Amino acid sequence: MKYAIVTGASKGLGEAIAKRLINEQMAIVSVSRTENEDLKNLAQEKGTYYRHFSCNLSLEKEVQEVFMEIAHCIFLKEPTEILLFNNAGVIEPIETVGNLDLTPTVRNFKVNVIAPMMITNIFFKEAELSNTKIQVINVTSGAAERPIEGWSVYCSSKAAINMFTQTAALEQMEKNNNNKIIAFSPGIMDTNMQETIRSSSKEAFKNLEQFKDYKEKGMLRPAHVVANALIDLILSGDVESGKVYNVNDLLK
Ligand SMILES: NC(=O)c1ccc[n+]([C@@H]2O[C@H](COP(=O)([O-])OP(=O)(O)OC[C@H]3O[C@@H](n4cnc5c(N)ncnc54)[C@H](OP(=O)(O)O)[C@@H]3O)[C@@H](O)[C@H]2O)c1
């Protein structure tokens, strides 16, 4: 059986990914601080395996403990394949360099970079002991490749996850196993993260008006459109390990 682990499944893109996978009859493990009752109900309705693990991804000890437990539970079931969606992310701090506070800066890197690194590490290690194929999907951003004033921390964290993805992919190829790891850039979506962006200050974020316009002009994609493009790619089986995919190319 195939299992999918989705971090940040409580809302936004993660919720949309989890919903699509439940509809595909896949077993789902959801990880976030809050549980999404709709997912639980949908899985019940469809008769699929669903389990939620509460975890604060900015607490590295908690991440290690919770994901060791998740790995233990899943590998016991001798899965044929595990899809790991490192989707959870935070945009804050939105602030210019010189005005950054330490706590949100460190938190950003813990959620956006350290947690996906540690989780991927756990699953690649466990996979070596079994015949399970692992596919890791790290959700990145166009901001990884484009400097945006006020977003130095977020841009840097997403650039780091892209490089982690590319490096880990080379290592897995060298091992000649079936594991794959990709990054996926979802474009601008109508989620809570965009609300946070719109509530930042003009002093901290130069492009504030442009992002308000995106919402007003209906330019933000619904998360389910983006999730469907990603899941169609994954289910096609035609994934190139190490590649940074962009939703705009998938929706052409
Ligand atoms: N929205 C966009 O326009 C956009 C553009 C480019 C890239 N992205 C990327 O897409 C991904 C999904 O973003 P989104 O727009 O769906 O964001 P969102 O609606 O704000 O949802 C973020 C998710 O991450 C989880 N999360 C945040 N901090 C966490 C923590 N400390 N511990 C555990 N879970 C945590 C949240 O769950 P809880 O609050 O329940 O813990 C929530 O489920 C992110 O990686 C983001 O960087 C988004």
TrEMBL record:
<dbReference type="GO" id="GO:0006729">
    <property type="term" value="P:tetrahydrobiopterin biosynthetic process"/>
</dbReference>
<dbReference type="InterPro" id="IPR051721">
    <property type="entry name" value="Biopterin_syn/organic_redct"/>
</dbReference>
<dbReference type="InterPro" id="IPR002347">
    <property type="entry name" value="SDR_fam"/>
</dbReference>
<dbReference type="InterPro" id="IPR036291">
    <property type="entry name" value="NAD(P)-bd_dom_sf"/>
</dbReference>
<dbReference type="GO" id="GO:0005737">
    <property type="term" value="C:cytoplasm"/>
</dbReference>
<keyword id="KW-0963">Cytoplasm</keyword>
<keyword id="KW-0521">NADP</keyword>
<protein>
    <submittedName>
        <fullName>Short-chain dehydrogenase</fullName>
    </submittedName>
</protein>
<comment type="similarity">
    <text>Belongs to the short-chain dehydrogenases/reductases (SDR) family.</text>
</comment>
<keyword id="KW-0560">Oxidoreductase</keyword>
<dbReference type="Pfam" id="PF00106">
    <property type="entry name" value="adh_short"/>
</dbReference>
<dbReference type="GO" id="GO:0004757">
    <property type="term" value="F:sepiapterin reductase (NADP+) activity"/>
</dbReference>
<dbReference type="InterPro" id="IPR020904">
    <property type="entry name" value="Sc_DH/Rdtase_CS"/>
</dbReference>
